[in-house]
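Slide 14.
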Amino acid sequence: MRFMMIVKSAERSGRSPKELVEANSKLSEEANKAGTMIGGGGLGSTALGARVQLSGGQIAVVDGPFTEAKEIVGGYAQFELKSKKESIEGAMRFMELHKKLWPGWEGKTEIRQMVGPEDFDCKP
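Slide 15: predicted structure.
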């Protein structure tokens, strides 16, 4: 089963401490060696981004920063795991690193099972 883990927090959280970045790199390296991590990474601030939206039949581009956003996606990772339980255990380890190495940081990791065309009876 494939899972996407999406890390969300307030944009004002600032940059991750060096110790946390190093610990996350080690965690990712271990998952890569185990063959469970497909990919992932951190995301820059919304000031560096844009949104392409469809509304009322019109497509528009809105440049960042997105001041109305209360929380943003700060990073993501994709995993091939045996179960939802295993994905929760991995997210718990990840959040424990944040608790230990970035005191006062608040955020969440959303876990979503990924789906593909095969889940919708589609022909490639």
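Speaker note: Residues 84-101 form the longest helix (18 residues).
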